[in-house]
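Per reviewer request, we include the raw input and output of the structure prediction for the construct analysed in the revised manuscript.
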Amino acid sequence: MKVLLDTHFWIWWVTGQDTLTGAERRALGTAAESGQLALSAISLWEAQMLHVRGRLHLDMPFEAWLVQAAAADVVQVIPLDVTVILALNKLPESFHGDPADRIIVATARARDLPLATRDRGIRRSRTVRLWTAES
């Protein structure tokens, strides 16, 4: 099953941070091998902003890292398109106002994908199907 990665989940996975569980790492590795990982295009921008703000530390230049981390054999980058915008329009007013989170959730909803996230606000909102390593 294809899964959409929230920005932090993607960064944790591609940078090898131990924030993910062993089960999550194995499941993501298996999904990647079969081309089942997806990423909202807004996550590319979020990564760039984290880097500019000094919150994403890399062992290589950001440009080289981004090309590798977003390569087609790693994730399928889903563009911001009409279906995503229409899904944004259907989010409840109560859903928090972070634009990137809204676009990521709308992308998951528009493409009917579970979302791999640890974001408490997204998880509590019950606006999107959540991914688990056992999914």
